[in-house]
C-alpha cells in the first residue's frame, strides 16, 4: 500500500488500502476544515465561542478514571475523548480517519508501520508532542505490568524494535503481518497520545479540553485548551460532566435546565423530552447487544440448536418493543457499517416452524435454558424478556437470571453458557480479533473454527482492500451459518439536548454525541 | 387466666369496631385481589400484547407497561408473591422476636442480659447494609429477601414482647403454676404467651406493613424480586420512566400498596384499642412498652 | 420541667453506680457500642469476602482480561490472606487512617467524609423540621380532639404512612420540578467541594420528602401521648385547681408527652439513616447511602467498612440519647409483691 499524503487527504482523493470506503477519506486536519458527516442536523447559527456545556451522564461510579489506558464506563470514555487525542478516530459515518497522526503507512508485507505525528500539536502544559511522546504512549499501553485496554489492538508488537525516524516519525515493527493495524485503532479503545512521564493523577493530553477538577462518581470540570491544534475548535469555554444514577434523574435534570446534554436515553422518554422544548437525536449506531451462546457447551454445541435460536427471534417486533422501532435490523453478523460488511447475505426472519424442526432434529424439543442478563446497557434486560416470550412459541422455556452488573463481569464473565453483552462499534476484522478467534480476549462464544482462523491470518497479510473484503465476506458467511451470536438488531443511540446546543449530529459510531465530540458543539 | 384461642376472640372484637370494619374491608379487598388475581387476569402477564405505554383502551383498561404488557393483568398477578414474602418475613421476624422476648423475660438474670445485649447489637446493625450485602453475596432470591427482612424485624419485636412479658411474669398465677412444678416451656407457652398476645398482634400488624414497604423499596432499588415476574414494587420502578405516557402503570400498584397498608394500619389500631381499651395508636403501645422495658432493666439499679 | 425534677428527687440511691444511674447507663451503653462497632466491622468484612468477584473485577468491568485482572489485584493488594488484610485495616483505623478507596485510590476519609456531612445535614434538617411541624400538629389535634381538624389530620397521616418513600419523592418531583411547577431543581447534585447549606434550593425537595415520610409517626405519637397526658390524674388535678386550659396544656400535659415522642423521634432518625438511600437515589443527592450502594457494587471494601462504621456509630449514639431520655422521664417499674 502506498503512502497517503496530506494533500490527498485534504482533497479527499485518496483511494486504495488506507481507507475502507472507496468514496474517499474525510478530511480532519487543522485549518478551517472540520469533520463532516452525511447527517448533520440543521443548525440555526454559525459556530460561536463561549459558554459552559453541561453534560449529564449515566454509567459512572466511584471507579471513574481519567487514565486513557483504562476507560471502562461511558463517563470514562467521554472524559478520555476530550482530554486526549487519538492517532486514529471515526467520523459520523463510522469511517476511520487520521486525527493527531498525520500519516500511517505499512511496509510491503505489513510487518512494520510508520507513523508520523502532526506538527504543532501542543500538550496542555505547552510542550510540543514529538516522537518520544508517541513511543512513550505506545509502551504505556503494552506495559506487561499494567496493560492498557488497547494492548489487544497492539498484539504482536515488538516494542524493543520501535525506531525513532525523526522528530515526529517512528516505525513500529510487528512479529506478524498486520494489514489491519490502522483499522484496529479506529474506535474508543485506542492509542491516546500522552506525554513522556505521564502521571494519571495529574493528567495532561493534547485534547481540546484540559482538566480543572475531577471527583470520581460525581463530577468533572474541563476548560478550553486555547492552543488546541485543530482550531477553531473547541467552541465552548468550559465542559462540565455530571454523573447520574439513573435515567429518570437525568431526564428530570435536562427538563429542569440543570444540564444541556444527556446520553443514552430509552425510547420511552422521547415524547416527554420533545414536548418540553428539548431536543432528541436518534443515531443509527453500530454498537451491538448480542445474545451469546457458547458453542462448546450443550445445548449450543449443536449448530442446529444455535440456528434454531436465531430463527426464533422476531427481529422487527423486538426492536419495536424495546426501542420503539428505532435502530437497524441485524443479521447475526457484527460491524454493519464496515464497507466490508456483506449486505448480500439473506436477511434472517423469524421462522418458528423451521426452528422447531431443527430442535427436533437435534433431539432438543421442549428445551429449557437459563439466560443470564444484567443492566449492562440500555434495553438489554428488556431484550431478554422479549426473547423469553418469543422462545415460548417454539416450545423453548427460557428462565431469566438477572444478576448485578458487577456479578455479570465478575469471575463468570466469558463463561456464561447463554447470556448477553454489549459492544461498541469496530470495523469487522478488528472485531473478529477481539471476539471470535480462539486467541481473542473476549471470546464469549468460545468460537474456534479452523477455516475461519486461517482466513483471518490470510486477511492480516492482505494489503489489497478488495481482496481483503472477499476474505471478510467468506468469514461472515461462517459467522452467519455457524456462529454463536444472535444479533437481532443494532440498537439506536438516543441522546437528549437543550435547544441552545448546536453542532449535534446523527452518528453511526455507536456511542453518544458522535463519540463524545463536544469539541464540535457550541451554544447559542 | 388460661387462654387457648383467646386471640381469636380479640380479633373478632376488634373486627366489630368501626375502625376494625374499615381496616378489614380495605385490606381484605386488596388481599383478595392478590390471591384471586392470577386466575382472573385477562391476558398473560409476561407477554407483550400492544405498544409500550399504550393509554387505556377497552381491550386494556389500564393501558400497557414498558414492554407493552397489559397493566391490568400484571397488577392482578403481581400481588401474591409480594404479600407472601411480606407475610413470611413478618411471621419469621415476629416469631423469632417473641421467642427471644419471652425467654429473656421469663429466665431473667444472665440469660436476659445476654439476649438483650444481642438484641441491642442487632438493632445497631445498619439493616440496609446487611440486606444489601446479603443480596449481593447470595443473589436476589425470594427466600433470601424473606429471611433478611425477617431478621431485621426480630430485635424490635423482642424488645417490645419482653417488656410486656416482664409484667406478666410477675403475676401471681404464673408463680403459682411454677410452684406446682410445671416445666419452663409449658409456663412460657401456656401462661405467658397468651397474656402478651395483644402486643404480639399489634406487632404483627405493624411489621406486616413495614415488610411490604421495605420489600417494595428493595425492588425499587433493584435488589428485590426480579423481572420478568409481575410484582407491584418492581412495576413501580420499571414504569417510572413512562409516568407521563401511561401513569396507570405506576399509579395502580401504588394505590394497591397504599390501600393495603392503610387497611392494615387501621385494623392494627383497632386491635390495640380493643385490647387496651384506651385511646392509643398502635405504635405508641409498642414504644411505651419498649420504653418501660428499658427503664425496667435499670430499675434494678435504682430500686 | 417540674415534672421531671420531681421524679428524679423521688429516687433513693446508694453508691456511685446507684447515685448516678444516668452515668452508669451512658458508660455501659458506650462500652457496648464500641464492642458493637468492632463486631459489625468483623461481620461486614467477612461478608465482603464472600462476595463473588472483587474490586479488580469491578474496576475493569467488561474490559477485564486475566492479565489485567492480575495486575490490578496486585496493585490493590487483594491477593494477601484475608486475616492480614483485616488486621492492616483495623490497625489503620486505630491510628485514624481509614485507608484508600479500591475504586479510585483516594483517601476514604477525604472521599466519604463530605458525603457523610451531606447525609447528616439531610437527616438532621428533615428530622427537626418534620418533628416540629408534626409535633405541633399532633398537640393541636389532641387539644382539639374529635374536631374536623383532628379527623382530617389523622386520616391524612394514616394515608401518608402507607406510601413508600420513593413514591413521595417522585410525587414531589413531578409537582414541583417537572410537570406542574418548575420552581425547584429536580435533581440535587451538590457540586463536590461545596457544602449543603450553600445549596439550599437543592435541599428543599429531599428534605421535604424525608420530613413528610416521618411526619405521620410523630404526629400520631404526639397526639396520642398528649391525649393520654391530658387524661392523667396529674393534669386532672391541675385542672381542678382552676388553672387555665392553656396553662394546663402547656405546663402540665405537654412535658409528660415529650418522652414517648422523643423515643419515636429517635426511632425515626434511625430509620432515616437507613432509609436515606432511596431518597439519595431519586434525587442524585451525593450522600452516604448512595456511596454505600456504589461501594458494594464496586466491592470497595475500605469504603464499605467506613460507611458501616459511621452508620453504626450513629445508631449507637441515637440509641444512647433516647435511652437517657427514657430513663429520665419514665415511671419506675412496678415491683413484685
Number of helices of chain C: 14
| Radius of gyration of chain C, in angstroms, nearest whole number | 25 Å
Give the N-to-C terminal Cα separation of chain C: 32 Å
Structural class of chain C: mainly alpha
Strand order of the largest sheet of chain A: 8-9-10-1-11-20-12
Q: How would a textbook summarize the main sheet of chain C?
A: none
Structural class of the secondary elements of chain A? alpha+beta
Strand content of chain C: under 5%
Q: State the distance separating the first and last CA atoms of chain A.
A: 45 Å
Unreliable spans of chain A: 1-39
Tell me the radius of gyration of chain A: 23 Å
The largest sheet of chain A, given as strand count, sense and whether it forms a barrel, is: 7 strands, mixed
For the secondary structure, the number of strands of chain A is 22
Fraction of residues of chain A in helices?
A: 25-40%
Regions of chain C with pLDDT < 50 over 5+ consecutive residues? 1-14, 332-337
Identify the quaternary structure here: heterotrimer
Shape of chain C: globular
Q: Which pair of chains forms the biggest interface, and how many residues does each contribute?
A: B-C, 58 and 74 residues
| Broad shape of chain A | globular
Number of strands of chain C: 0
